[in-house]
Amino acid sequence: MLKGRESLIRLIGRRRRLRHSLLSSSAPQGLLIAPKEDKDEVTTGNGNGNGGEEMVDCPVCGNKVRGEINSHLDKCLARGTKRKLSQCTLFQLKFCTRPKVTVSSVESDFTRTDVGPSAIDGNICDLASDISSSDGPLNNVQDESNSSPVSLTLTTNRSNICSRESSVCNGVNRIENLDGLVKFDDECKLLSGANPTISGLEDSPQHQISDNRIDNITNSPLSLSENGTSKCVEPLEDDDKILLDTFIVGRKFGGVIELTIGAMVMLSRDSQNVKDTNAIKVLTEDTGHSKELGFIPRELAQYLSPLIDKFQLRFEGHITSIPQPPRAVVPIQIYSSSIASFGKKDSYGFQEFNSFRRNALCAAEFSKTHPPIPAKYQHNLLLLLKEVLKINAHLFTEGEKTLLKSFLSLSDDSQRLFARLYARKGPWFRMARISYAEICDYEEAVKGLSEAECVTLFESIDKLQIDDLKEVLNVLNVGELWDLLCSLNKSHKKIVQKSDHGTRKQDYIARVLGAYESGLCPNLPSMILGKTGSCIRISASAESVFWRAERLFFLNGEQDLSAFLLVDLGIVKYPAYNCIFTDQIFPDRSDLLSYEEAIEVAQVMDESLDENNNELVSRCIEISASHVSSFVEEDRSSHSGSMVAFLSCFSASWVYSKVILLGVSFLEHERRYKDAIDLLKLLLVKFKSDRRRGYWTMRLSVDLEHVGCLDESLEVAEKGLLDPWVRAGSIVALKRRVLRLGKPPRRWKTPSFSNSFNRKIVEVHVQGRPVNCKTGVKNVFYGEDGERCGVEELALEYYAGEGGCWQGVHTESGIWLTIFGILMWDVVFADVPNVFRTKFQTAPLDLETDSFYEVRRGLVEALLDKIEHGMAEELLIMSWESHAGTACRGVNWDKHSLSELRAAVTCIGGPCLASICRNLAQDYRSWSSGMPDLLLWRFHDDYRGEAKLVEVKGPRDRLSEQQRAWLLFLMDCGFNVEVCKVSHTPI
């Protein structure tokens, strides 16, 4: 892969559906200059308009546009701008096999305020419901589409169990009950919390969502206290009966039974249920044979079941309303027809009874505003849109705001249908094949979306264009395309032959379109629509606006709405931190549009490399170079200190620089060194304060040598050594070039750094029996046990035996980044303005910049002082116990055990460990790779130990510049460092 390609792919994220109009050869030069506010005037036909500004033809719609065209392009840019989804989303989890997940007691013992909604008395917790079904089985029936359920077992600490009289423990994402152990299966449809997302998001003043359909719990026993936490209003004591409003769920797995409003029902315990021993069935109250209607929700059943079993209560009730879908949840009202018989004054039984009753009332009241529907994805999308509108409203036009607000006011069915379609690849979908259990009325859903201009419908052939025709053809399967071709073949025999039956789908589509464009089959659109029926797709304007909102919310292209679901499912646990905003990432709309256009160029560059379209690649490089040439590095002194370092990452010029860097690799691969030299000089002139200057300088020096300019190559390398932004491995590489090129007669004086640079590193030689000896193939050897292993495992065997009885791990940089993240946790997630913008970050935005250390210097040095004085192990244990399992940049909880990490930090020693942590804190980006392969340690009798770092090299390997930089740094810190060279056993 070309250098810089992987980084560009991460920046782009999910690919959007582009028309490449901005990059066509006919596109006017300067088209992608940073756009201004949307004030363009559009005319139709050939009118010249008024005023002195030049009229420009829009390459998209063909209309005349006065003045700046970019803002107009943002509005009318052709259909299909949504990123391309190349894999299934979490919305489609019911088609996937899901592994079992077990949350250990180590994690569950800690109060988690960072993930998940509130829990009622520690028992009601928003574990992820089955996302893809409407009212899946709550108790005894397993969903056929989920053959591998997720089983979550959460062990609790009884010292943390909320009081039985307490009502709600908000934000605690664990389950606690009187027995200390509760098991749930994924089929359970658990009630959502106050907001089905990360609790920290709604706790912040900037993140308070007020959607009545999501958060209106004013009349519920659940309400917000003054400090923002949920509490349960004490229910009135009522010795006559317990009255509850709830639902019948799990009906889709039983037979269809005709229901009537007011029909009587009764509850019956199902203690033999293998899925849930608290299961309670809902039966029809007939004089003859009672029929099973379904179950009550599990979160309510866990409180009612002891009331039935232990206190002999009998519950009955009636159906309050009938839903339209025959298998949807059915609202019912139930009440107890008898009261437990015990004394009220001094009986512990009464206290226990009252506790269960309070919890049951809370659970039932809570479900009024949070019915058991699998629409988390809808709630998550609403939350995302509201947050973006609240924080970044200035970046949207009035038309875009109107579209978003119209969507927010749509019915639940419309919003769910849109969310489903948005998550799918598309772009076109057959209306006849869209089926989701949680959507009740498709006609009304589509009508609402169409009126809000969120979807486009094709119901007649008059609206089909050639591009639309090609996309609609993709809806057909291979068999249908074959039938279509056979129909055409009756009148046009050359279109398809019998031997072509195995042709790929795209070949079929190309032949069909070829017949249409050549005029052989003018009635093709009606034939296609006859097979597909009415089709629907998300409109171009909605795709563009929602993509923009998603990008603004996550501030990257790698995350999307599935990040919410990963949290809901308990797969990812994000750290707790405060989002403090003092500055905007994008001050005005023109900055955002320029940034988006730069990302579009980057995506076209990436796609063109995939397609080997060198002409389009060159076009992208030219556009990027043109923009960077006009770029002037801004003075950001008006922004806060923490904003200065990473703000440039959200600018168009920074994106274009990444395109140029990839272009340099492309040109070098094509041996167009002079063109690559021009681009590298441009980058070095325009970006004076960039951590990539070391690599740019190195490549410039190398390319100058390729074209025979040795004097200039040496001069560039020497100047690079004086550049403060050239660091780590780049310094080592440039020093090596200076020593090699700077020989007489070019340079007569030996550089002052030559002695330190040429220091010898201890080498150890190990021989092994090779499995293969082929060049270009990974080295594989036979270990002591006869099993095949790599050079690192062979070196570990050597050091464990004759090499000195060392213990150790093959980890490279992994264990060091893990130790750094765990020890520096409080520093990394300290309250620094603007570096945390969403609740889905695993590190601050400035971690890989110089400002990380500058802004937190006091915190960093105070912590390093403790580490240096021998407190590393204690700090490690405390941080591990508090944050185990929480996602953090660089930290791998699974690969390294606590015992390994404790042994490592103890044997390394405080001073050496503090030096490494300081180095990473000052320049995480430059030093987060290239660490030695092996970390070895051994203990002495007095619980003191020593450590050794070893870089392992195979027969044909050599040290990289970054690895050499690390080894020299570690030697300066006082580490015991070696290079272990593995060679073949002589025959």
UniProtKB/TrEMBL annotation:
<dbReference type="InterPro" id="IPR033315">
    <property type="entry name" value="Fan1-like"/>
</dbReference>
<feature type="domain" description="HIRAN">
    <location>
        <begin position="241"/>
        <end position="338"/>
    </location>
</feature>
<dbReference type="InterPro" id="IPR014883">
    <property type="entry name" value="VRR_NUC"/>
</dbReference>
<protein>
    <recommendedName>
        <fullName>Fanconi-associated nuclease</fullName>
        <ecNumber>3.1.4.1</ecNumber>
    </recommendedName>
</protein>
<keyword id="KW-0464">Manganese</keyword>
<keyword id="KW-0378">Hydrolase</keyword>
<dbReference type="InterPro" id="IPR049132">
    <property type="entry name" value="FAN1-like_euk"/>
</dbReference>
<feature type="domain" description="VRR-NUC">
    <location>
        <begin position="867"/>
        <end position="984"/>
    </location>
</feature>
<keyword id="KW-0863">Zinc-finger</keyword>
<keyword id="KW-0460">Magnesium</keyword>
<keyword id="KW-0479">Metal-binding</keyword>
<feature type="domain" description="UBZ4-type">
    <location>
        <begin position="55"/>
        <end position="77"/>
    </location>
</feature>
<keyword id="KW-0540">Nuclease</keyword>
<dbReference type="GO" id="GO:0005634">
    <property type="term" value="C:nucleus"/>
</dbReference>
<keyword id="KW-0227">DNA damage</keyword>
<keyword id="KW-0862">Zinc</keyword>
<comment type="similarity">
    <text>Belongs to the FAN1 family.</text>
</comment>
<keyword id="KW-0175">Coiled coil</keyword>
<comment type="function">
    <text>Nuclease required for the repair of DNA interstrand cross-links (ICL). Acts as a 5'-3' exonuclease that anchors at a cut end of DNA and cleaves DNA successively at every third nucleotide, allowing to excise an ICL from one strand through flanking incisions.</text>
</comment>
<keyword id="KW-0234">DNA repair</keyword>
<dbReference type="Pfam" id="PF21170">
    <property type="entry name" value="FAN1_TPR"/>
</dbReference>
<dbReference type="InterPro" id="IPR006642">
    <property type="entry name" value="Rad18_UBZ4"/>
</dbReference>
<dbReference type="GO" id="GO:0016818">
    <property type="term" value="F:hydrolase activity, acting on acid anhydrides, in phosphorus-containing anhydrides"/>
</dbReference>
<dbReference type="GO" id="GO:0036297">
    <property type="term" value="P:interstrand cross-link repair"/>
</dbReference>
<keyword id="KW-0539">Nucleus</keyword>
<dbReference type="GO" id="GO:0004528">
    <property type="term" value="F:phosphodiesterase I activity"/>
</dbReference>
<keyword id="KW-0269">Exonuclease</keyword>
<dbReference type="Pfam" id="PF08774">
    <property type="entry name" value="VRR_NUC"/>
</dbReference>
<dbReference type="GO" id="GO:0017108">
    <property type="term" value="F:5'-flap endonuclease activity"/>
</dbReference>
<dbReference type="InterPro" id="IPR049126">
    <property type="entry name" value="FAN1-like_TPR"/>
</dbReference>
<dbReference type="Pfam" id="PF08797">
    <property type="entry name" value="HIRAN"/>
</dbReference>
<dbReference type="GO" id="GO:0008270">
    <property type="term" value="F:zinc ion binding"/>
</dbReference>
<dbReference type="InterPro" id="IPR011856">
    <property type="entry name" value="tRNA_endonuc-like_dom_sf"/>
</dbReference>
<dbReference type="GO" id="GO:0008409">
    <property type="term" value="F:5'-3' exonuclease activity"/>
</dbReference>
<dbReference type="InterPro" id="IPR014905">
    <property type="entry name" value="HIRAN"/>
</dbReference>
<dbReference type="GO" id="GO:0070336">
    <property type="term" value="F:flap-structured DNA binding"/>
</dbReference>
<dbReference type="Pfam" id="PF21315">
    <property type="entry name" value="FAN1_HTH"/>
</dbReference>
<dbReference type="InterPro" id="IPR049125">
    <property type="entry name" value="FAN1-like_WH"/>
</dbReference>
<keyword id="KW-0255">Endonuclease</keyword>
